[in-house]
Specification:
homodimer, DNA-binding, alpha+beta, Arc Repressor Mutant, subunit A
Chain lengths: 113, 113
DNA sequence: CGATCATATCGATGACTGTCGATACCGCCG
DNA sequence: CGGCGGTATCGACAGTCATCGATATGATCG
């Protein structure tokens, strides 16, 4: 009867609740436009970018870019700072680090060779 | 006229093409069920799991679990290995490492404090 | 105050996606 | 060979999402 089929999990796996959290964060980042937005903001010398610049970087409506920024902000990836007429966004490094941690953690990446 | 508003990007940002690639990978992972699937498989002693186990771990139809496995396989996150009647999936560590790398890279995470 | 400009919000629309039941495919066992 | 059981695929449906044009909000300038 060899091994029926199963190699049971050892309880190390991610809980359903944590999976929901991580999925929410990933969903915010799983879009080409939003990835480029984050990348653009992160690559500025000041560590922040104003919406006027971001609008011009894409072939999209101002409404659409604003929507993407809102999604990233709601997910905790970006911080908003309105100064005068202009709005500035900056990256929250903890959010990105959280993603890096999940996929560097032995529980996931540590599939021992 | 102070600083009109802009802090221009320095060309370090992610290209549109790369953003598409990364987004495709993230989209495959940005789902609670799929995250748990990957986690379950990665946490097995053998580094692989058969579909019969995975089906029982969720309150979902066998068709739905199979669909999620296909998405992960197509995205390059999982390897499939059909042995006899049973199908075994294992995690491709490179795929997860790729995600970890993107979000550890100075271009994104290196927003200096 | 009124005009103007930057940004956010709203409502609509077309595309995509997670889920299901049903069914097809394919090794296996008797 | 015929039936059985595990897995993948198909078609449908409901919910979500990216995008847009139009409009609201709110700060600045003349």
């Amino acid at each position: 009867m060899d091994d029926s089929c199963c190699t049971p999990a050892d309880g190390t796996a991610m809980t359903a609740g944590r999976a929901e959290e991580v999925a929410a964060l990933l969903k915010a980042l799983a879009d080409p436009v939003r990835l480029r937005l984050v990348s653009l903001i992160a690559s500025t010398a000041a560590g922040e970018a104003c919406v006027c610049d971001l609008n011009e970087a894409f072939d999209l409506t101002q409404a659409t870019v604003s929507h993407h920024l809102k999604v990233l902000h709601t997910a905790g990836v970006l911080d908003r700072d309105k100064r005068g007429v202009w709005a500035y966004y900056r990256v929250r490094p903890e959010a990105l680090a959280a993603v890096a941690d999940v996929f560097s953690s032995p529980a996931l990446a540590g599939v021992r060779a």
